[in-house]
Amino acid sequence: MNSPRSWISLVVALAIWQCGVLQADDPKPGSPQPPEEEAETPNVHRPATPAVPPDPEELQNRPVEGGKLRFNFHGQPWPAVIEWLADISHLSLDWQELPSGFVNLRTEREYTLDEARDLINRQLLDRGFTMLKDGEILSVVPIKKLDPSLVPWMKPEELAAAQPHDFVRVVFALETLSAEAAASELKSLLSPNGKLSPLKSTNRIEVMDAVINLRQIQKLLVEEQSAEGQDRQVREFKLKHVRATEVQQQLQKLLGLDKSSTTAAANDPATLVQQMTQLIQKNAGAAGANAGGRGGPPPVYLVADPRDNSILVNAPVEQMAVITQAVRMLDTPQEKSRSLLRDNIQTQVYPLIVADPETVLSMLKELGDLEPATKLQVDRKRRAIVVQASISDQLRIRLLLDKVDGKARSFRVLRLQKVPADYVASAIDLVMGGGDGTKRP
Predict the structure, then answer these.
(1) Which domain holds residue 125?
(2) pLDDT for 86-115, tens place per residue?
(3) CA-CA distance, 127 to 102, in Å (whole number)?
(4) How does pLDDT run across 363-384, given as a tens digit for each residue?
(5) Whole-model pTM?
(6) Which CATH number belongs to the domain containing residue 278 in this structure?
(7) Calpha distance 102→100 (Å, rounded)
(8) Which residues contact 339 (CB under 8 A, 6 or more apart)?
């Protein structure tokens, strides 16, 4: 292997192998060539200076009779155009910074001064600038450096008459929508120059943008809050720890409702159905009234059902979210230590000797301070009260019935020495409400 002949053979073999590899890599004549990767074409940028020098005569246009003018700009620098606009508007000009480049603007009809300012302001907005008119001063400022206090306020009803590209601030009052939800949904309608802030305490939103975008926001809000756009819901809330009537009163205070909300009779399911039918009819009437014009906030109706200790709510979606959160906070146990006695439900029948069952039933509901899950019913045939309640409520009811129905009476004979027995009996009977004073001896 170390001989000169062996080294020569090895070198020749390597040379032949290298030639074969190179020939394999070279494409054959006439064979298809692999496609070359196309380079990404860069964007074309506008030159800093116009191809043709601007014509100074374009800046000599002035309004004719009637206050209208026609103008065309080709390659005019921004300072010259802004100064021309302030001159023909008889306004003092104030600016510290203007867009780079030049202005190309061709018109085919005559424009008023306000319309001319709006056309130029549109191009300024596209470049991140805006034009503000305050009295006799015309200012041009970059929006990123703009002090919001300099932006003029405008009422929503004034947007229709304003120029489309005026940069203004508007506050929209919300009725059925929450400020946070509206702000989240409406941000997509803003331009890159716009800003939107929710005012949670007053449930309003403040928007700063061009008038043309504010009109779209106003239109969407009107549609969402109109009678046709309101999505109402009917939902039942079953309560575990508090009474339905108590929660109903708290919700009325929270929502600022009047006493038109109703409470269904405890043992009359037909009353509940009738009340819900009336509420739906009222709701339909209110929707028709709101459709004819802008009315107040949509009504909310509450029906308390003591039979199942539940509340039926008919309200818009946004109000339903508030009610759901309020019910969750109100329906909480007051004493956790009594959970064992509260959860052990039993059924007992309490026969009455003297008291009227209906009267006792009303008294227990009003004065018994019973738990929401407790159910009471009158058994007329057996002259009794049927109670389905926890152990703690059963004890409370038993003590009350012993006092009211006279089961705790004792028999005792009193000997009289100075007064006749029939006279004392008549007097006692009169005091207890069972006698007649005219028959007293």
Answers:
(1) 56-146
(2) 999 999 999 999 999 999 999 889 999 999
(3) 12
(4) 887 766 677 778 888 888 888 8
(5) 0.50
(6) 3.30.1370
(7) 7
(8) 333
